[in-house]
Fold each of these.
Amino acid sequence: MSGVMNRLKNGLVTENPVFVQVLGMCPTLAVTTSAVNGIGMGLATTAVLIGSNIVISMLKNIIPSKVRIPAYIVVIATFVTLIDMLLQAYIPSLYDALGLFIPLIVVNCVVLGRAEAYASKNSIFNSLFDGLGMGLGFAFSLGCIGLVREVFGAGKAFGFQVMPNFFEPITILVLAPGAFIVLGLLFALFNYINSKKAKA
Amino acid sequence: MKEIIKNALILFAITLVSSVLLAIAFQVTEEPISVQKIKQRDAAFATVIPDATFEEIVDLDFSEYEKIDSVYVAKKADEIIGYTFKLITNEGYSAGIEMVVGVSIEGTITGIDVMRHAETPGLGALADEADFKNQFVSKPLGELSTVKGVSSNDTQISAISGATITSKAVTNAVNEAVTYYNNELKEGN
């Protein structure tokens, strides 16, 4: 079981896709206008990551290395489209919240990155947990960015008013430039915590 | 040469399996998806004209009304009490805004509802809040305009501060539905 914990910790902290690997910046910047949006995007990506990691790990001996990238993209795009249709049909409330972001997952380089760097070289079981760990790490990071932007930019957390009435929302934080500012600040914070740990 | 053919065949096999899977999933989900869409639409209609039944009017010409997606007649006990419009406008700040507008035959707007949008949270997204939407309720069927600050008469909608583009997009869509009603649906035409 230590392998499982190791994969989860790796995705959430050691190789956190956003704060350490700086992957998937498009959705990170674009959809994190609120905590719910960030977490939703993260969880949808997690589902795709787990699925594509498993399938690519299964096919790793069949896919020739020269055509591996198009093969991975076909697998990923198929999963994204399947999830899109299934959510729309059977979990409409979740689709309402996430529908907008699902097609974006196809171009999320975290998914392709894990297929190339991990799933194509490791066992199915480990790949599954690698996908889960990376996905949760992605969801956690996007949730953090979304929460900070929502609290200071709109005075709300998860849609509920949390800031007192006299607080004037810093509107720029929910606009595009705010995404870069908050991302930069959280990068700094995350790296500071990691460097402290490394010293200790 | 042999390797190219082998690679191509393997890639072909992968795409073939993918397309078969997608085709099956499409077949299976097609019906539930359309059922969900109707449910969602009816829920939005019920907020603008409560307790009515809705029936789509087919064969209408919207070529001069690019924002109108479809028009429905609202009936209560077999009597026509109004019409609902499903609109999609691309004048918003982000992707298309999908909304519904209700019009009563007594000559007022019964209400609007935003079904799907991607406007900025805290700014344009406030268009889906009651504070903004309720402004349209009971407005007469004429041209509405947006103003900054407080509206001073019946034909003005107070724009959401910091989101003039979204406010205008919604108001223009409502105007188009009203114009269509006045020109095409109103009794006597």
Amino acid sequence: MINVIYVMLAIAVTIIFIAYLFHPKKGLIYRIQRVRQNIQRRFIEDALKHNYHCETQQLACTIQSLAGALSFNIDRTTKLISRLEELSLIKLNGKGLHLTSQGRRYALGIIRTHRLWELYLANETGIDEIEWHSIAEIEEHKLTEDEMDKIAEIMRYPRFDPHGAPIPTKTGEIPPKKTIPMTELNVGDYARIVSVEDEPKTIYAQITALGLCQGMEIHILEHTPQKIRFAAEGDESVLAPLIAANINVNLLQRKPHIRTSKYTLADLDPGKQGTVIGISTRIRGQQRRRLMDIGIIPGTLIASQIRSPGGDPTAYEIRGALIALRRKQARQIYIDPKKKTGDQR
Amino acid sequence: MNTSNNREIKNDKDSILELANSLRWDVGPNYYDELMESIYKDAAKIADNAISIADEKTGFDWDRFLDKLLTSRVSGFPIMLLILAIVLWITVAGANIPSGWLSTLFLDKLHPVLSDFAITIGMSWWLKGILIDGMYLAMAWVVSVMLPPMAIFFPLFTLLEDFGLLPRVAFNLDNLFKKAGAHGKQALSMSMGFGCNAAGIIATRIIDSPREKLIAIITNNFALCNGRWPTQILIATLFIGALVPPAIAGFISAMAVVFIALLGILLTFLSSWFLSKTILRGEVSTFSLELPPYRPPQILRTLYTSLIDRTIFVLWRAIVFAIPAGAVIWLLANIQVNEVSLAEHIIQGLDPFGVLIGLNGVILLAYIIAIPANEIVIPTILMLTVLSKTLTGFGEGAGVMFEFEDLSSYQTVFAAGGWTLLTAINLMLFSLMHNPCSTTLYTIYKESRSVRWTVVSALLPLLLGILMCLITAQVYLLFV
Amino acid sequence: MKSKNRKQCAECKKSSTDHLTRLGIHSGKYDFTVALAGNPNTGKSTVFNRLTGLHQHTGNWPGKTVTRAEGGFIYQEKRYKLIDLPGTYSLLSNTRDEEIARNYILFGQPDVTIIVVDSTRLERNLNLVLQILEITEKAVVCLNLVDEASRHQLKIDEKKLMRDLGVPVIPTSARNGDGIPKLLQGIHEVVHGIYPCKPHRIRIESEQLKNAIDTLVGKLDEIYPDLPNTRWVALRLIEGDQSIIQAIKNGTFKNLVFDQTKKEEVIVA
């Protein structure tokens, strides 16, 4: 009797295994095939993206630059280019590579996928900022247009990615670039960061490490050929022009409302109170909306009330309600502390 | 409307949408902040206009006083533990009496009456078996053991909730839960889980952060629920208490049970931490916890609604699952293949694996078929042991669950089943760490709306339990 | 349930609770539909239970009511259907609850929306009130938990509030049944047009947003001259709200405007 049960078990396991191998959509064999197709697709798409970026930055796109971007040798690059020409995605014009209108549409589609996916990661998942770009780099080649439309719908057809770059529409519309690189600002200028280029990766990592992101208001303090010194959200930072060129800004005509301070809510001990100046731009998506919904907007008077016996969180009186916030959140809320203690409201 | 008019409207529609589309580029990504600020500025102005504060500091501020008391470093934790202990004690002690009444009524009185009636009307033995010894008995058992503790625990809990104490508990414990990657409110769903895991999982609704809610759902099973306390107490008394002199036997066995409950809490934290670092790493995590003002609870309304919303709701789900399971239990014990019952075949098949992890085939089968409620695991084990060891003089026939009044009969049956100290220890561990009951699983599915998370919630404790039992068994065999 | 609130209602003899018949869950024809909105944990469910005689659970936890509940009552010989919307802090986010609430108020076109407000946190609750007043003109603010507010030494001048908001404001303590007759009276006055609602409109400060909305409102007014809440529609279009875009595509707005009488046919998203 034992044997019968074990034999049945063995048969069941075998059947499941075979099903796993040959399943038409999820099977191992199908997946291996897809990966191979994907690699092909990936090279084509990366080449188009490179071409498109050259176009927007008004740089010449050549076989050499493409080979560099894909880290291919010239031989392999030439092969890829002829394949692209076959598909009439690009035109070879002398030394320069040019996108056909069909190629441009394709490239915009990939950029749309990439930026949508980054926004999705930023708003709907807890994945760290530094990983968004590299995940999107992989996913952009895998997702179909239908899947992307669905995601766009869930996200309510958003217009800007988390770095502030515009997301092309389904029909390939994208507004003309109106921003200037940060390097063009002069001492004393106020500007708002509109977008941060997420490539090259090493530069992007340096920018995020400084906590700079889309939406921040900056004030240029010093500008020499060697360095740009500026204030952003209360902190002073210094960047080399080479790196600063990757930050696109809008020049502000007048001094913006100050939304930062060196004090944050985390500095308020129980019994003290302060007025909200602003929420750091680092908090975004659902988190930001939640904080605003509970009444944390500039001008709100907040009184720190009780601290948990564990030391964190702390309960604050915000517009009549007692709301506990963790230190991590409180540190992102800038306040103007008032010396007065005691009475609430 | 004529066609040309229609076309005009269609063009109008398109032009509006196009205009909206192009304007969306213009407003930029930060307009929501600006909009919210405008709304709040207006709200603040209107509110300031309308509100005036009467003379301050007239009278005693109860809210502030209670907050100081309940969240202070000195008194916060003791008060919380005391209240939880009192609630659990009232539940366990208070439930015994009505449970006794119900089981006398349903099992001792009504069951024979129904059996006799079935025989009188000439019902065939197998139909009577399925309907009365299987379905009715399982249902009656579940009702009599589940209803009283839930009917006491839930209203008490709801009263504390309405008063406003529970958010303070979450506030006190949040730091601890934060370290495990979870939300302070999980303290509530966990405490609720001590009453019933299904209710604990419903209670996770108050956690609005998706990741923390999933953690609370998946780990809720490690809170030792009402259905498992009696098993723990019985086995600890029989086996652990017997190891020490009779004078301290009661204390030691009680300590053993408390140890298992504490192990459950430890596992809650460890598995929460593990989940937040691995499979739930990418889920969104937000935090907000509001401490509402204290409000005097409305006792009668609370009793009524908690009875309807929680007790009857959970009980109903349990009954729905218990009825078919009762039929399955009876059928397994009574369908014979090669003159041996199906149950015995399966027990034999499961036995090698059972023994490997320090349990046995009977226990494993009991946990499989008694999935509707942990309360019927022990009766099922007794019935299956008597059946597979062909003991005479115990129980009421194949497929009929039963329990003993005295401990010595338990000892006799377990001894006949080949139980050792290892079996007892591992049964206590396995009772803590195994898949949740079907009611809880169904509730998990309802709350998470995902087959995937339901499967994870079932497999995580089960695999952990098997692993733990395997290790204990191998270590035990080294020394014995 | 007993009506033990006659004492508190000296000046409103005519409209005491005796005119109220609670219907519980009752299907059938209704003369008016009433939506019940409010922040979580403001006693919204208690108001609902008071009016309908049902027993929805209320807990001292934010966000307790998860499912949408419906009930009915008769007041002064008119049958009212009451729809309890999910408790939310705002109507602008993309969460399911907020979507249900805002779409119901816009497309469901209730005859009146009761906004339950926690008097002890008026400022924060007004956020939702102002947003609802952008969508609908016909609203009654139920200033609940006034007993708690006075316990906290808070005095709220409902007359000033009424003037600023432009809709009836009725102080209540739903838990004790205080103010419910007046609330009913307020509902009655709004649905019959006795009280002329002139709701407050949010002053948008951002120039960019204001310009964008104004441009769009101009266009919307041209096409839907009878639509009362073009500003809200414009705002939602800028947000990219799919239900509004769909409504424009299917011409739902046309129907909303012209077929005010055939309300049953309006599909609620």
